[in-house]
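Morning F.,

Quick status update on the modeling queue. The single chain you submitted on Monday has been processed. Sequence for confirmation:
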Amino acid sequence: MNEPNIYELTNPQKSIWITEQFYQGSSINNICGTAIIKEEVDFDLLKKAILEVLKKNDIFKTKLLLIEETPKQCITDNINSEITFYSVKDYEELDRIRKDIVSKSFNMLNSYLYNFYVFKMPNNQGAFMLNIHHILADSWTLGLISKEVIRIYSQLKNNKYNSESPIVSYEQYIKKEKEYMNSDRFLKDKTYWKNKFKNIPEIANINTIKDNITNINSYAGKRELYELNLTTVETIKHYCKQKNISLYNFFMSIFAVYI
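Structure tokens below.
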């Protein structure tokens, strides 16, 4: 086995690490996604597909260390190959198990920060779920991982699987960020933004009533869900492509305008 490569946390990871320290022992940074397969499933091949995805992507080989009180990350050759299997009677039981899984916090240091689960339904249909810490991935990543599992599973079923390169190497991103931070471009950008925000603009925020808050460390919340029809979604995507912006920036801009 090769010696692990040890790196600083990236800037996005540092922000998540700070949040984790503020809400220690909570599941606030758990990212969880489930893919349901509405056909008869070969569960041995599904597990094999998951293991292939784990081996191909270095985020699943990443662990956090504390070196001289500073968080670091190391990328090893190892993965968490234990895939937990559940046989469930219906989707309600599946949902109860999912909620229980995502409510449990990860041990942050020197341990795997993700777990895969496979569910078998009575009709031999199935589902798989990834629960992963936000310091390794986001919800967009979950979508990519799910698509890759399904792609490899389909290839295995049809005896057409060929090993390919990883979806994205996070290690490459770490190195690129370090190169940028040491570049003339970074110094130029830094100067630009310092000048841009000499006068801090008004922060868009929602007023809160603090007098009634008894626990400022509470991470409890709730969600309002609104489904957009396909035509609206395609219109928004087309607009974002024209303006060369992401969907995230689009919705955050609308949110800022609203408040």
